[in-house]
Design goal:
This protein is an alpha+beta fold and 892 residues long. The protein has 15 helices and 41 strands. 17% of the residues lie in helices and 25% in strands. It is flat.
Length: 892
């Protein structure tokens, strides 16, 4: 592609480049790229390991930085970006060289086959393997199978004799292509020195050289082949592979027989002579066992000649090709569609965490939370972004070798890479800010005010980031029903009406609107109400400002705001961070504000660089500045206590000098009342119009004030601790009832982990759903989805229920990233795993409980949680009733 196309591409978004990467050409319609053979080398250099074991050079990808120079090579023939064909450098004019095809050789006993990840065509053209190559991220991958012939007779592989040739699967590519007669043409590769291969295979793979008819006839069944040893298992998610360079001298004569593969006598044609008549190269799998499988992946191919003259390089440090590069030869290619926005996002993660780590280096206790967030993002976010590698028939030159053996990058690649690198940097910068915010969120404790005694323990009863919605439950202590539109909703305001140009940059890119929907998306993005305030003076005569706040009791249909008496809150607390101080202000409505000369009572939240900053103020702490007396509308002053009786809005006001900016995040808002049972009776549910009790946390690391009881099972005499959570009474440990005589349905339907009774004593039994339905004692029953949901809502909603309900020890045991719960209501869930497919999956990272809710004849519901996040929920996926899960009983 000419440079002028790259100039055009550089002016548009990277996302549009994918359209340039297509595989719609067919054999005979495109031109084989003019790839010149590199200067060959007759020298063969072996590593010390190869000398010791007599095997080929091994060039593992993970060791390339420390490998000797002779072990480095270019994958100029085949790599994940080179297209659907191997660029052999030879073509007979039919444009059919390097095309992949499959050959199977059956025997009287064993039948070979290949399981492909996508459809393969039998037509010999460049698109025959294109679907597979796309599915394998630019490689050729699949699984070879060998099965005894199904002819109605029972066979034994022992029937094979030493004269039998093993069945084989051959993955083949031609060197020069087919001529007009349909036969493959021969080429001379004797100057190459050998071939280098990047591959993955769980079995043994032979590389077989396929010569022309005259040589094959003279060899009379003798083959020249080399063995590639087992490597890691091919993985679509993690394309690991190993690299080996095979010199031509590593190819030994073989009969291909089952028991006598090597040839003692000198073949009629030497390897040196045969290489002058090479037709194709085969990757061969053979087996003598029934039901054997051999997963494989062929990732990279290059001439061995390149291994002795390539030097280690970093493409970012290579200069762009210029007039000083004489007789440049292309040695590697690239597809521009692999340098898109989605790929840039994927590759920005590592850089983002490096940036975030640097930003958090002043916080000594950030390491644990940063590690947890990295684990979650890599498992969920980055995995979802994995773009794979797309191939293309119009691959362009990436790396060039000059006559002086130096290497350069092409101008085309330099243009694409420059725009791509900027995208990676931009995405990394944005993601790093999000990581810092999440790390600060992780570091906070939403249930306990730092540096306070247990008596001063304050819950975030009005709102905190764990709630499902960004909605402040202002009626918590009001003893009356919210009656206005927008009651408890967040809002944002800037100085634009006063002529200022300040603005708030939000973490989500959606049209701005007040209310629950927008701020809930903000909350979900950064686990708080967060953004960056940019201050601009504009035409305003006052200091630039922005405001975040919430309406206390909303407004009527005419738009007039209600005032609300919140004096019984005793004050207000906030958990936050901010780059500049914040004025926490009580807005008393337009008429009262005017009478005060717009001098509203406020307190100052000091600048804070961590969300662990939690401050509390009593109403008497709210003071006026005194400037209101200078206003013509001033009529009187007001105390904080009197202001609290008529609050319309609570406002977080941030000010700064023009051109400055300040990051902020509000994580929790709470009343100042001490922890007690004197709660408002109800608040609106975060998930429906139903009402649920607010979370009441009765247990900390040092105190346990939960309401407990006991229950003795009359069937076997076992006594269970019980706990009241909201309006429900639950067993505080898993059911451990196993008497199949009194309850026959339990027969063969219950298990102790590892079949050891002591495990049941600790974590309870695992029941099938059928057994669980009948296992609870009289007066108790297996909870339904609705009852589990009520428990989850009672402790704060799905987003935080897992952490609230998990025990304070045992989770993630032995895992550096493990996170125990806080067991704030005495429910004390231990990790118990589950039993599925006749095997236990016991983990210190997960647990699930049966629900009585039934989906169909085979599936039922269950409630699950794990240590990777704070949530607990009725899982959307159903589970088979024959699986085994623990049981918690709830009182009738």
């Amino acid at each position: 592609m000419e440079n002028k196309l790259y100039a055009a591409c550089g002016a548009v978004a990277l996302a549009f480049w994918a359209a340039a990467c297509s595989d719609d050409t067919v054999a005979g319609t495109s031109t084989e790229p003019n790839t010149l053979a590199l200067e060959s080398s007759s020298s063969t250099v072996y590593s010390s390991d190869s000398e010791q074991f007599g095997g080929p050079r091994l060039c593992r990808v993970s060791e390339m930085e420390n490998a000797p120079a002779g072990c480095d090579w270019f994958a100029e023939m085949w790599n994940p970006e080179s297209g659907n064909r191997v660029h052999t450098g030879f073509d007979n004019g039919t444009n059919t060289s390097g095309i992949w095809f499959l050959e199977l050789d059956s025997t009287k006993l064993l039948i070979p086959s290949v399981e492909w990840p996508a459809e393969v065509s039998d037509v010999y053209d460049s698109l025959s393997f294109s679907n597979v190559i796309d599915a394998c991220n630019g490689a050729v991958c699949g699984t070879a199978h060998f099965n005894v012939v199904d002819d109605g007779i029972k066979h034994d592989v022992g029937e094979l004799t030493e004269d039998d040739v093993r069945p084989s699967v051959d993955i083949v590519f031609s060197m020069a292509g087919k001529n007009a007669t349909g036969k493959f043409d021969e080429v001379d590769v004797s100057e190459w020195g050998g071939i280098c291969i990047g591959y993955s295979s769980t079995g043994l793979m032979n590389v077989v050289l396929d010569f022309g008819d005259s040589v094959e006839n003279a060899l009379d069944g003798i083959l020249y082949e080399a063995l590639l040893f087992r490597s890691s298992k091919p993985s679509m998610m993690e394309p690991r592979y190993r690299e080996e360079c095979l010199a031509w001298s590593d190819f030994k004569p073989s009969t291909g027989r089952l028991f006598h593969p090597l040839v003692d006598e000198e073949p009629a044609v030497s390897i040196e002579e045969g290489l002058k008549h090479l037709v194709s190269i085969r990757f061969r799998f053979q087996s003598s066992y029934d039901k054997s499988t051999e997963p494989f992946k062929i990732v990279r191919l290059g001439r061995y000649a390149t291994a002795s003259n390539k030097k280690n390089y970093n493409e970012d440090s290579l200069s762009v090709v210029d007039e000083n590069c004489e007789t440049p030869v292309g040695v590697e290619r690239f597809c521009e569609c692999n340098y898109t926005d989605s790929v840039a996002k994927y590759h920005s993660f590592d850089l983002a965490f490096a940036k975030a780590e640097d930003m958090l280096k002043s916080k000594a206790d950030a390491g644990y939370c940063l590690g947890m967030i990295k684990l979650r993002m890599l498992m969920f976010e980055k995995l979802d972004l994995t773009p794979g590698i797309r191939t293309c028939d119009n691959a362009m030159t990436k790396i060039l070798q000059c006559a002086d053996k130096s290497y350069r990058i092409s101008r085309e690649f330099a243009d694409v890479k420059s725009v791509y690198d900027k995208s990676v940097e931009n995405y990394a910068t944005i993601k790093a800010q999000e990581i810092v915010m999440l790390t600060d969120s992780c570091m906070m404790n939403p249930l306990r005010v730092p540096n306070t005694s247990p008596a001063e323990y304050v819950t975030s009863d009005l709102w905190y980031a764990g709630y499902t919605y960004a909605h402040v439950y202002t009626d918590t202590y009001s003893r009356k029903v919210l009656k206005g539109v927008d009651a408890g909703e967040f809002f944002a305001r800037t100085d634009s009406l006063e002529g200022g140009t300040s603005k708030i940059v939000w973490p989500v890119e959606i049209p701005y609107s007040d209310g629950r929907d927008f701020f809930t998306q903000v909350k979900d993005t950064c686990r708080g109400i967060c953004g960056v305030a940019h201050f601009g003076q504009g035409k305003s005569s006052d200091a630039p400002f922005v405001e975040i706040g919430f309406n206390v009791e909303g407004r009527d249909s005419s738009g007039k705001y209600y005032a609300m008496d919140v004096s019984n809150w005793k004050g207000i607390c906030a958990q936050y961070y901010a780059g500049e101080p914040i004025a926490l202000t009580l807005d008393l409505g337009d008429s009262v504000n005017r009478d005060l000369g717009m001098d509203l009572p406020f307190v100052t939240l000091p600048k804070a660089d961590s969300v662990s900053n939690f401050v509390c103020f009593e109403w008497k702490d709210f003071k006026q500045s005194g400037l209101g007396k200078q206003s013509a509308s001033y009529k009187y002053d007001i105390t904080g206590e009197n202001a609290a009786k008529q609050v319309v809005k609570v406002v977080f006001k941030m000010q700064g000098t023009s051109g400055s900016e300040s990051s902020f995040r509000i994580m929790a808002i709470s009343s100042k009342r001490p922890n007690s049972t004197d709660w408002g009776e109800y608040t609106k549910s975060s998930s429906s119009s139903a009402v649920t009790a607010l979370p009441i946390f009765c247990k900390t690391e040092t105190e346990d004030n939960c309401e407990y009881g006991t229950m003795t099972d009359a069937r076997d005499g076992q006594t269970y601790k019980t706990v009241k959570v909201g309006e429900q009474w639950w067993m505080a440990r898993n059911l451990n009832y196993a008497d199949s005589v009194k309850t026959p349905v339990l027969t063969n339907q219950i298990w102790c982990f590892k079949r050891q009774r002591e495990n049941c004593d600790e974590i309870g039994l695992h029941y099938t759903w059928y057994a669980a339905k009948e296992a609870c004692p009289d007066g108790w029953h297996l909870p339904s989805n609705e009852e589990w949901k009520k428990l989850i809502d009672t402790v704060g909603g799905e987003a935080v229920a897992g952490k609230i309900l998990r025990s304070q020890a045992g989770w993630g045991a032995g895992d550096a990233n493990g996170e125990n719960g806080i067991d704030a209501v005495g429910f004390s869930i231990l990790p118990a795993g589950y039993r599925i497919s006749h095997a236990f999956v016991f983990s210190t990272m997960l647990n699930g409980f049966w629900s009585s809710s039934e989906y169909d004849v085979n599936n039922a519901g269950f409630m699950g949680l794990n240590y990777f996040d704070d949530s607990a929920k009725i899982l959307d996926m159903q589970t088979e009733k024959v699986n085994g899960y623990p049981v918690r009983c709830i009182k009738d």
